[in-house]
From TrEMBL:
Residues 1-158 form the Alpha-type protein kinase domain. It catalyses: L-seryl-[protein] + ATP = O-phospho-L-seryl-[protein] + ADP + H(+); L-threonyl-[protein] + ATP = O-phospho-L-threonyl-[protein] + ADP + H(+). It comes from Hypocryptadius cinnamomeus. The keyword Isomerase does not apply. Protein kinase that recognizes phosphorylation sites in which the surrounding peptides have an alpha-helical conformation. Regulates cardiac development and cardiomyocyte differentiation by negatively regulating Wnt/beta-catenin signaling. This is Alpha-protein kinase 2. It is found in: Basolateral cell membrane. Residues 161-201 are annotated as: Disordered. Coiled coil: none annotated. Keywords: Cell membrane, Disulfide bond, Immunoglobulin domain, Kinase, Membrane, Repeat, Serine/threonine-protein kinase, Transferase.
Length: 201
């Protein structure tokens, strides 16, 4: 079921985020690291929709920090600390998995993220298959711009000579309307079968 897959993907991404935090947090000047919140699967046998997911309710401005396919530029992603650290997280996972896996659709409130996706190459990675097209990996490689957090972690630049020649026209992507990303993500949070509960913490 889609719900079980969603749970599996988010909790897999959460494990990568924990490893990223363990490496990034001790670095001087890195600061807070984004966290992917835990998602729980509940079975409701009497309900029309027998499976639902339960997670902590995120209160505040919900922001998309990375778009699944990398085609849109989100100013909050480029200019905010959380957005930059999310892009670095994507780069870190990409490098750790030798370009076989990418955590996509990073979104949430501040440093708390939810509803993420994972793209893997067609054959999957270590027995895991993502729920997003593997073309996102190609696009990430072409569009990712390293920031200071990538440098702190010592990540290798993804720019090749072929991409450097194309750098002459970076302005095109900046003119994309930002409002489209906001409109698109609103219904996603309200959809069945996700139930929200406030966390005990």
């Amino acid at each position: 079921s889609v719900v079980i897959q969603e749970c599996y993907v988010q909790n897999t991404a959460r494990e990568y985020a924990k490893l990223y935090a363990a490496e990034a947090e001790p670095l001087e000047g890195f600061g807070e690291v984004p966290e992917i919140i835990q998602i729980f699967l509940i079975h409701r046998p009497a309900n029309n929709i027998p499976y639902a997911t339960v997670e902590e309710e995120l209160v505040g401005e919900f922001v998309k920090y990375s778009v699944k396919d990398g085609k849109e530029v989100n100013f909050l992603r480029r200019d905010s600390e959380a957005g930059q650290k999310c892009c670095t997280f994507q780069h870190w996972v990409y490098e750790k998995t030798n370009g076989n896996l990418l955590v996509t659709d990073l979104q949430g409130v501040g440093m708390k993220l939810t509803d993420v996706g994972i793209a893997t190459l067609a054959k999957g990675y270590k027995g895991f298959k993502g729920n997003c097209s593997f073309s996102f990996i190609e696009q990430f490689r072409a569009l990712h711009q390293c920031n200071e957090y990538c440098e702190m972690l010592g990540l290798k630049s993804l720019r090749t000579t072929h991409q450097k020649q194309r750098k002459a026209t970076p302005t095109k992507s900046k003119n994309l309307p930002n409002s489209s990303t906001v409109k698109k993500m609103m219904p996603k949070k309200a959809r069945e079968p996700r139930d929200f509960i406030s966390s005990e913490h």
